[in-house]
Amino acid sequence: MITTRPTNRPLTPDDVTPTWLTAALHSSGVLPVDTTVTSLRHETLGGGTGVFGVLARLVVQYSKPTSAPIHMVLKLPTAAPENKAVALALGIYVREINFFRYLSEQTPTTSVRCLYSDMDTNVGEFVLILEEITHLDVGDQLGGANVAQLELTLREIAKWHAAWWMHPDLDTYAWLPTNDSPVQMAVVPDIMRAALPVIESQWVGRLGQDAVSLGRDTADNFEEILRRTGACAKTLCHGDLRLENIFFNADATDIMFIDFQMILKATPAQDVQYLFNSSVEPEIWHSDGMRLLHLYHDELIALGVTDYPWSSFWSEFRLQCLWGMVAPASTVGGFDMGDEKGKQLAERWMMRGWLLPTAVQARQEL
Fold first, then answer.
1. 327 burial class (0-12, 13-18, 19+ CB within 10 angstroms)?
2. Which residues contact 120 (CB under 8 A, 6 or more apart)?
3. Domains in the chain, start-ordered, CATH in brackets?
4. What is the pTM of this model?
5. E-strand spans in 79-124?
6. How far apart are CA 273 and CA 58, in angstroms?
7. No. of helices (H) and no. of strands (E), the chain
8. Residue 244 carries which DSSP code?
9. For the segment 234-273, what is each residue's pLDDT rounded down to a tens digit?
C-alpha cells in the first residue's frame, strides 16, 4: 500500500484525483492503508478565491467505512500573479503550514484540523487539506460582528496570547516574522503607498479628508510604524483575526479559528486592533469598544500575564490602528478581491479600518 506522500502537487482543484488524495491521506495517517478514495467531487467554497489562496470543498467516498472525514477543504496558492508575488515575498504559505506542523498543538484555542500539507517554497507551490467545519458557521464579516461574538473572540485570543507570552521558542523559528523583519520592511510600506492614489482620488467623499490625510501621514511614516510595532512584539499573534476566519455557533458560546497564513510575533494589541479594524461597525465601537478592550486586557492579566499594564496595551492598540490601515488599503488599491462579495467586503473594511484611527485619536502616535 502507498504510505509515502505523492510527489506531484495539484495546481488546481481539478488536479485532485481519487488516486492522488488516497496517497496524500495515507501518507498523513488520516486514512487506513487498506482503504482508498473511490470518488470525489469538487465544489466552490466561499467564492472559490481569496486574496492569497484558492479554496474548494472536497466531498469524498471511500472503499470501506472509515473515520476519515468525507468533507474537506482544499487550499492552494492564488492564481492572481500580483497577489501570489506578495504572498511568496511575505512567506505566508510557509507560515500556515508550519503553524500546523509546530505550533497548533501548543496553542490552547480550537483550530481547524489539518489532514495533509505539503509545500515547495522554491517554486511557490503548496497544498493544504483541512477538515471542513460543519458544526459551526463562519462569521459574517460583511455584516460585522455582534457584541457576543466579540466577547467570545477576545476571551479566546487572550488564551492564545497568554500561552505564548514571551515564549523563548518563538525566537527559534526563522520563518516567523515580526513587523520589522527585513521582508516586511521591504514589502509592506510599498503596499500602503501604492494604494494612496486610489484612496485619495476615490475615497475622500466617503471617509472624509481627515481620515485620508491621516492615511497619507501614516504611509509617509510606515517604516517607523513597523519598527515601533516590531519592537513591542511579545507573543504569537494570529495576524488575520477577522470574522471570515472565525466560526461560531448560533449563540456565540463555541468558536474555532482558521487561516494561519499571517501568524507572526507581535504585540497582542495587533490581533485585537485587527478584529475591530476589519469586523466591527463604528456604532459598536462607540457603544462597547472601550469596555471590550478592558475585557480583553482583564482576561490576559487573569491568565497570568503580569508585566503588561493597561497603559502599554492602550498605547500599542492606538499605534496598531495606524499599522492596520494597510490591510483595507490593499484591498481597494491593489489586490484582486475576486467576486462581488470580495469587493463589498473591501469597501466595508475601509469604512471601519480607516475611521477607527480617528476614533481612538491615533494620530498622536505618529
1. buried
2. 9, 126
3. 13-131 (3.30.200.20), 138-365 (3.90.1200.10)
4. 0.91
5. 114-120
6. 34
7. 14, 10
8. G
9. 999 999 999 999 999 999 999 999 999 999 999 999 999 9
